[in-house]
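Q: Given only this backbone (193 positions), what sequence would you predict?
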């Protein structure tokens, strides 16, 4: 599970999901769109349904990556522990994929203490010379977690920058998958600063 606001989804998200799937030998990675990301209230720009459609467009045709509406369908605040419980099954080993910045803030999440018993944590970090940075430089993670580390290429792209570029009329081609750029244009998303 790779959850997020995805406001909007960009190539960095897709690369992180794809590289984690390959590195850890995962059957599939669900990109779970947060319906109501309670830690970002007031900062989310596009409605959940549009963000879900953008993620569907981003991962369409990429083997092993799927958009998930589990949180959008459930409604209410997006709580990762609730989502992992909903996705869990006796024959299923779950992996929670987080960027290093999000992993560093895990202690602030609702039901944070329940999370280590629900999934393995995969911390995605930007590679330095093709290697994972020294673990002592990474986020401090509760020792109750089983942690895997995944290096991804350094891509300087953020949802904040994509939104700002759209609002100012600058191109976003190459920063988001082509189908995402087209959908943003077609729906007039992010046109206001």
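A: Predicted residues:
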């Amino acid at each position: 599970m790779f959850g997020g606001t995805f406001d909007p989804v960009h190539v960095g998200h897709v690369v992180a999901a794809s590289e984690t799937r390959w590195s850890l030998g995962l059957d599939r990675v669900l990109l779970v769109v947060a319906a109501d990301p309670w830690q970002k209230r007031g900062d989310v720009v596009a409605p959940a349904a549009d963000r879900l459609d953008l993620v569907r467009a981003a991962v369409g045709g990429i083997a092993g990556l799927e958009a998930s509406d589990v949180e959008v369908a459930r409604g209410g605040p997006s709580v990762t522990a609730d989502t992992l419980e909903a996705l869990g099954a006796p024959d299923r080993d779950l992996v929670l994929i987080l960027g290093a910045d999000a992993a560093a803030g895990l202690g602030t999440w609702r039901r944070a203490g329940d999370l280590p018993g629900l999934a393995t944590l995969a911390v995605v970090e930007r590679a330095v010379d093709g290697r994972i940075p020294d673990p002592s430089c990474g986020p401090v993670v509760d020792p109750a977690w089983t942690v895997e580390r995944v290096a991804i290429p350094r891509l300087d792209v953020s949802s904040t920058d994509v939104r700002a570029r759209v609002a100012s009329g600058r191109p976003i081609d190459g920063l988001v998958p082509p189908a995402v750029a087209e959908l943003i244009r077609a729906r007039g998303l992010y046109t206001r600063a």
